[in-house]
């Protein structure tokens, strides 16, 4: 396939990757899943797309910007019917490939967090999701317990996926350069089939705890549990939320459910 040198249009309102080596490295993050269909989210001007095509993936594209969609259909006419002008976050499951598929992209900064919340919803069908996003968000997704970056999405995503921080990307490889660095991560589905507690309740516990992350759980969870919760004397309530692993949040939620 020819290596297009397309000057991104600033009117598209995004930061476009211009480094082919970085694009090829990102495309290679799905090499263990080359038998599965791939959905690229936010293809922009096709910097990553061309390497996914060259590697022979059964590729579909979801791109919200009409101008970018028109460009992509000109660059990749053989797959024009598989380039959807749509908002990935609003797509229904039946609008995505049947069965299992992977997700990849140079994700727009303003929706990258929401993409990974949607990934959690699609976890039974998506064994791997990789791509580039703002470095701060990537660190948050991949952070282990005990670090400042560890937070709500760290817990909720890592309940279902093993998340790897692969490499950092300098801002100079974009046109126009953003004010922050980027990073590439890969989320691979783990072996967990159920949490062992009510998922909605665990989400409430995690979100409430991290809303006041500097406080101990005894104080941060009072908006959810009230002042008279019978197990506040348990040692876990002396800890702050960033100190708890996924398994410990499951155990905490189970304790709370047992009192309701």
Provide structural commentary.
The longest helix has 13 residues, at 199-211. The strands form two sheets. Strands 4-3-2-5-6-9-7 form a seven-stranded mixed sheet. Strands 1-8 form a two-stranded antiparallel sheet. Helix 2 (49-54) links the parallel strand 2 (38-41) and strand 3 (59-63). With 260 residues, the chain is of the alpha/beta class. The chain has ten helices and nine strands. Residues 1-13 have low confidence and may be disordered. Helix 7 packs across helix 10. It folds into two domains: 10-189, Rossmann fold (3-Layer(aba) Sandwich); 199-257, rRNA adenine dimethylase, C-terminal domain (Helicase, Ruva Protein, domain 3, Orthogonal Bundle).
Chain-wise SSE layout:
Layout: E1 16-17, H1 20-27, E2 38-41, H2 49-54, E3 59-63, H3 66-75, E4 83-85, E5 102-106, H4 112-121, E6 128-134, H5 135-142, H6 152-158, E7 161-169, E8 174-175, E9 182-189, H7 199-211, H8 217-220, H9 222-225, H10 246-257
Parallel strand pairs: 2-3, 2-5, 3-4, 5-6
Antiparallel strand pairs: 1-8, 6-9, 7-9
Helix pairs in contact: 7-10
What descriptors fit this protein?
10 helices; disordered N terminus; 17% strand; two-stranded antiparallel sheet; 2 domains; Helicase, Ruva Protein, domain 3; alpha/beta; 260 residues; Rossmann fold
Write a brief structural summary:
This protein folds into 2 domains: 10-189, 3-Layer(aba) Sandwich (Rossmann fold), CATH 3.40.50.150; 199-257, rRNA adenine dimethylase, C-terminal domain (Helicase, Ruva Protein, domain 3, Orthogonal Bundle). The protein has helices at residues 20-27, 49-54, 66-75, 112-121, 135-142, 152-158, 199-211, 217-220, 222-225, 246-257, and strands at residues 16-17, 38-41, 59-63, 83-85, 102-106, 128-134, 161-169, 174-175, 182-189.
């Amino acid at each position: 396939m020819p290596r297009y040198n397309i000057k991104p249009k600033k009117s598209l309102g995004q930061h476009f990757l211009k480094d082919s080596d970085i694009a090829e490295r990102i495309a290679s993050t799905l090499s263990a899943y080359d038998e599965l269909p791939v959905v690229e989210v936010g293809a922009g001007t096709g910097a990553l797309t061309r390497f996914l095509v060259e590697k022979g993936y059964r590729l579909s594209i979801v791109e919200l910007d009409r101008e970018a969609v028109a460009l992509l259909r000109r660059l990749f006419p053989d797959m024009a019917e598989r380039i959807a002008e749509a908002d990935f976050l609003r797509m229904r499951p039946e609008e995505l490939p049947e069965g299992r598929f992977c997700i990849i992209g140079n994700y727009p900064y303003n929706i990258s967090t929401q993409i990974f919340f949607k990934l959690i919803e699609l976890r039974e069908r998506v064994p791997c999701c990789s791509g580039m996003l703002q470095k701060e968000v990537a660190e948050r997704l991949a952070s282990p317990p005990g670090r400042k970056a560890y937070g709500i999405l760290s817990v909720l995503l890592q309940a279902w996926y093993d998340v790897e921080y692969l490499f950092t990307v300098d801002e100079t490889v974009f046109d126009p350069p953003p004010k922050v660095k980027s990073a590439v991560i890969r989320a691979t589905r783990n072996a967990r089939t159920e949490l062992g507690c009510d998922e909605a309740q665990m989400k409430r516990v995690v979100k409430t705890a991290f809303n006041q992350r500097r406080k101990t759980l005894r104080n941060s969870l009072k908006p959810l549990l009230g002042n008279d919760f019978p197990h506040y004397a348990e040692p876990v309530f002396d800890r702050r939320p960033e100190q708890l692993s996924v398994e410990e949040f499951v155990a905490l939620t189970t304790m709370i459910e047992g009192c309701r």
